[in-house]
Write a structure and sequence with these properties.
The structure is a homotetramer of 285-residue chains. The longest helix of chain A has 25 residues, at 245-269. In chain A, strand 6, helix 4 and strand 7 (137-139) form a beta-alpha-beta unit. Chain A has 285 residues and is α/β, with parallel strands linked by helices. Chain A has two domains: 2-78, Alpha-Beta Plaits; 88-282, Rossmann fold. The first copy, chain A, has helices at residues 17-25, 57-71, 98-109, 127-133, 149-159, 175-180, 202-208, 245-269, and strands at residues 2-9, 29-38, 43-51, 74-78, 88-93, 115-121, 137-139, 163-166, 186-190, 213-220, 230-238, 273-276, 279-282. In chain A, the strands form three sheets. The first copy, chain A, has a seven-stranded mixed sheet, with helices on both faces. Chain A has a four-stranded antiparallel sheet with strand order 2-3-1-4. A two-stranded antiparallel sheet of chain A has the order 12-13. Helices cover 32% and strands 29% of the residues of chain A. The two termini of chain A are 22 Å apart.
Amino acid sequence: MQYVITAVGPDHRGLADPIVHCVTQLGGNIAEIQMYDHDEASVFSMLTRVELDPANDASLRQSIAEISARTGLSIRTWMPRRLDRKPRLAICCTLRTETPRAVLAAIKSGEIAAEAAALISNRQTCRGLAEEFDVPWHDIGRPDGSADDERMIDICDELGVDYVILARYMRILPPSSCWKYAGGRIINLHHGLLPSFPGMRPYHDAHAARMLTYGATCHFIVPELDAGNQIINQTTFTVAPGTSRDEIIRRGEQQNEPACLVEGVRRVVDREVALHFNRVVALKV
Amino acid sequence: MQYVITAVGPDHRGLADPIVHCVTQLGGNIAEIQMYDHDEASVFSMLTRVELDPANDASLRQSIAEISARTGLSIRTWMPRRLDRKPRLAICCTLRTETPRAVLAAIKSGEIAAEAAALISNRQTCRGLAEEFDVPWHDIGRPDGSADDERMIDICDELGVDYVILARYMRILPPSSCWKYAGGRIINLHHGLLPSFPGMRPYHDAHAARMLTYGATCHFIVPELDAGNQIINQTTFTVAPGTSRDEIIRRGEQQNEPACLVEGVRRVVDREVALHFNRVVALKV
Amino acid sequence: MQYVITAVGPDHRGLADPIVHCVTQLGGNIAEIQMYDHDEASVFSMLTRVELDPANDASLRQSIAEISARTGLSIRTWMPRRLDRKPRLAICCTLRTETPRAVLAAIKSGEIAAEAAALISNRQTCRGLAEEFDVPWHDIGRPDGSADDERMIDICDELGVDYVILARYMRILPPSSCWKYAGGRIINLHHGLLPSFPGMRPYHDAHAARMLTYGATCHFIVPELDAGNQIINQTTFTVAPGTSRDEIIRRGEQQNEPACLVEGVRRVVDREVALHFNRVVALKV
Amino acid sequence: MQYVITAVGPDHRGLADPIVHCVTQLGGNIAEIQMYDHDEASVFSMLTRVELDPANDASLRQSIAEISARTGLSIRTWMPRRLDRKPRLAICCTLRTETPRAVLAAIKSGEIAAEAAALISNRQTCRGLAEEFDVPWHDIGRPDGSADDERMIDICDELGVDYVILARYMRILPPSSCWKYAGGRIINLHHGLLPSFPGMRPYHDAHAARMLTYGATCHFIVPELDAGNQIINQTTFTVAPGTSRDEIIRRGEQQNEPACLVEGVRRVVDREVALHFNRVVALKV
């Protein structure tokens, strides 16, 4: 059975050794291991993907709990290929309702074979969706408009969330959150074509470049600022010359973005794709 | 009636005055005028778009001929909105047959309401198309693989060509050719999305960027190296993760590029779009 | 004698004809002519550089005044090579004092052979410089922090300003202002290397790219958003690995930027460089 | 004592476990560990930086030799902070002599406190330098102009080379070579400012962008195509408008590039900077 273990700690010393010891003593094999040390952001972290006999599952969890208690490391153990239940999704949103609604509807219809564990937001705009689709609503907004990033992670931990879906969620996750759910568990919908239009206003940027093609990109978040974009799905639409920017944005937000995100989440949930050494690989072609 | 007059000369002195005099003396109005002086490339040129009473057409042509004879300027007068005949196209190609074939077929079927005046190439690969579609074939290739750029212009002049279609024509037109047919008369098919992937190998570049979206761009050539891209049409297709680059190129060359160019040429021929002060504007929305 | 004539009007019709007629009837030669039509910004403008017998100077000015009165066009006539007086500079600033101080000091010392006609600002921070160097102070700030762009142009018109110096002036000039003083009369100091770091925070961007080289760029403003950068001078400094961003900004603002701008303005005032068909050319090499 | 251990193998399975076991059994601490798996390039590799009691040095080397023999992994153990001898440099060059000459001269004069272990080239142009500075010459060129990349690594292994200096070496090292000498041991001189001008012709590109600033960049090679540039030193020079491109290239190649590389190599050899988790960090500020 494959396990993905992530650890975030106060410095880079003592980060790798206890987990590596634990895994190798249980007879596990290290399939991938990455460390990250960024003094400026005070983020020190490790990801390792290991193969371990499922008979040792309880021993692994006990050892990890002991390491966590002894060292103060924030450690998570995730099984990407568990078969005993559907994947649990936390859907994060802010102001736009189209993409979270589309994911919730696709779960309800069975197109996405997952469970909607939570709708998390830093604003009130999408609260009605929680009631409509009968999904627990979690408000992590602060009075100043920012979000309680640690609360988001706590919610996901408590609910046993497998994947965090950023459905036009307008806040940038801090590196520590990205590392805690590293390994291909955070899926973002960007409302422009990556890597060409990465900014906050990709429709405006593409329009200013006089393009007639607009698109959306569904990708894994990888917890390094410099990393390339790990694209899971892209969808596009083209317009005739003279189409107004407002009309372009309307078509993008109402039709193209929801379709892009739903298909991207479906590919991950159905394990057609996965993150492997920071690259998206096709598991079934 | 609108006329587009282009002039290319040996220096920038004496370039504008005689033509401006001629037009204003005939009672014409200057709707647009641009000059270009690039010492390094030894290209000095002017474009003016004027409105003139068609009754003065013969006088204009006679005056321009006299100016040309007296000054040595290379001057062309073009009527973008003539109604007495279909636009004449010169289709330029090199090695790939898909896009020139698609344009020829669309002319034959009537989808593009134009006349195929010539098939021009610097290689022999597409010669069969000329026979198949009964279009005059012009070989402008030189033994070293380059093209006789002046011969291309001479052919277009002799045949009264309205639009030059670059259908995966693999040579870069010199600035003097671009200026001689300036004003929205040269239409290029680029086999990538502009402005994101401008190079010689856009499929490879987009693939290296791990994109899942590929596209083609049909645009006017504007005779300044620094100018933005004047996009007439863009078409895209998306692929699943894991699709091979060869398969992507195959789909792009065989399906996407021909469709992109045919629709782009149709928009120009049907005067749905035109070049106006270096921008593409929609004439009918 | 060379004249640069700029015209800004309510549409592109009727923009070129009256000025072209006037110049050619006075026996002038058109050395350069450019028109610009941008519906979205409602800016329609023309620049022409002509050679005219100075004996016709009064006739030119009278004719232009009549055209302006009759058509409502906003027309300016500028003589870039006048010898009867030193060039007059309007120095525009906002919050940083280093670069305007350096220009004022270089004028006082004679390094820049010009006259400081005005210190213009949308903030109060640099007011002390006006008193210190005995230069008229013009406050064009509005309560909301923006600037009265038309007032800036009015001041420059009234004072017979030859060159507008943007010395870390933090507002973007509207296209109409750029066109009114087109032809190489607006000189900007950008606090980063162009074209690599064009944004509002070039020190931050270069630091984020882990560069060890930082620079400043003095360039002509050319009134088209898409135009390349017309660089008059660039200066750089390099730092050792580990140098803090604050220290880098301090060195840039206090030492590098002032030196860059002073030398750039000197090159223009001494007519070592000029703008010629949107390119910077060296007049004396 | 710090050790950097790199391993390159035929697949990613079995890459990490034996080395991790060996190090932890000897009581070492893992300070950094990275793995890389790129199926397309068939490169599978690992880097680990460990702290180990020097008393275990012989045990480490013996264990590594056994692992290498048993698994077929290509493993290297490097001590970046050894004090018993000067660092040994392999200087790689192709056609230009200025930068390799400058490094050799700086070693001879003592400015760079290192030993020139070898001059390696795929061409004959720099052979005279080997004789002049009495450094062993190694020709790794092939008849077709390419280089024997494996021979380069063999030479460095045999000579106990600490750092590989690419002094305008015109071949791209394969990923396997980069990984074998990973950890901040390969130093490149790029003849343009990074990251702005990364291509093969940075002087031409910056000149085409009308820049007046030109530069060179000395950086560590990091064995992932997508990685940012790890800059050790940058030097620049500025030119007056109108300076010819040939003159710019002459100044760059003869003055700026040699100075940039010599200072960069000196910083590494004097351990003022080092590579730490893919970033350049200042060790003494």
